[in-house]
């Protein structure tokens, strides 16, 4: 039996109040399935979904979920199920879920699926309990099937950052893993010879001193290499104009 979602108080974030900004380059482009009748437009919508969920500037070929793409192109599934499938994919699990704590998974998932940051620490704790009881798959279902998701994106709209007042886009301020995972990876990389082990390596070196032997040039006999005899035989030259035989 799963524990019900703990109560938390929403804070006043930008996405909770109407916006009156003049549209500019920071205004997110909204991708809807009903606005994508052509093949090129549906490809742009699919790419927008990858960019929103994976938040990678370069979508690698082995990250693609071709079965989900095919179903969306054929209108077998809607955009909401496409987003659900991307978030539950093995690629997302490997890139995000396995490299973060539950709290950070909540932070990233709220930004990428609901298009907003977490309200406070209490919300992160509440959703992390959902992950612990229902698993990550159940957590994704609760987000995608939530009233908040349906109200803001419905069935056919790619999620987007709903409001941005001062901060940079989420994909620039929230990388797929945190500092502690990066530091852990770096620590495990340190092997013999790396700078982290330099002092230990230097102390373990067995230095053998070389005994100095003075050498006096007066004791060195230089052999005499001068020739006293004259060369024998017929002189040979490579010059064709010479008077003696040519080689």
Automatic annotation (TrEMBL):
Swiss-Prot/TrEMBL keywords: Antenna complex, Membrane, Photosynthesis, Phycobilisome, Thylakoid
Any Gene Ontology CC annotation: endomembrane system
Pfam families named in the record: PBS_linker_poly
GO biological process, one term: photosynthesis
Annotated stretches, region: Disordered: 223-247
Domain named PBS-linker: residues: 11-189
Family indicated by similarity: Belongs to the phycobilisome linker protein family.
Protein known as: Phycobilisome rod-core linker polypeptide
Species classification: Bacteria, Bacillati, Cyanobacteriota, Cyanophyceae, Nostocales
């Amino acid at each position: 039996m799963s524990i019900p979602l703990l109560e938390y108080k929403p804070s006043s974030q930008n996405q909770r109040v109407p916006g009156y900004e003049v549209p500019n380059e920071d205004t997110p482009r909204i991708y809807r399935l009903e606005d994508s009748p052509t093949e090129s437009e549906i490809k742009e919508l699919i790419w927008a979904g990858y960019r929103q969920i994976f938040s990678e500037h370069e979508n690698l070929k082995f990250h693609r979920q071709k079965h989900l793409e095919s179903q969306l192109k054929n209108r077998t599934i809607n955009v909401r199920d496409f987003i659900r499938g991307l978030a539950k994919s093995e690629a997302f699990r490997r890139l995000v879920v396995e490299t973060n704590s539950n709290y950070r998974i909540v932070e990233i998932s709220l930004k990428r699926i609901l298009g907003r940051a977490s309200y406070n620490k209490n919300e992160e704790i509440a959703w992390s309990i959902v992950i612990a009881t229902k698993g990550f798959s159940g957590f994704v279902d609760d987000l995608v099937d939530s009233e908040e998701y349906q109200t803001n994106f419905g069935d056919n709209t790619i999620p987007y950052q709903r409001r941005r007042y001062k901060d940079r886009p989420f994909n620039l301020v929230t990388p797929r893993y945190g500092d502690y995972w990066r530091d852990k990876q770096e620590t495990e990389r340190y092997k013999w010879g790396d700078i982290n082990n330099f002092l230990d390596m230097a102390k373990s070196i067995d230095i053998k001193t070389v005994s100095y032997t003075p050498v006096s040039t007066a004791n060195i006999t230089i052999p005499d290499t001068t020739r006293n005899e004259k060369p024998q035989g017929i002189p040979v030259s490579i010059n064709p104009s010479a008077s003696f035989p040519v080689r």
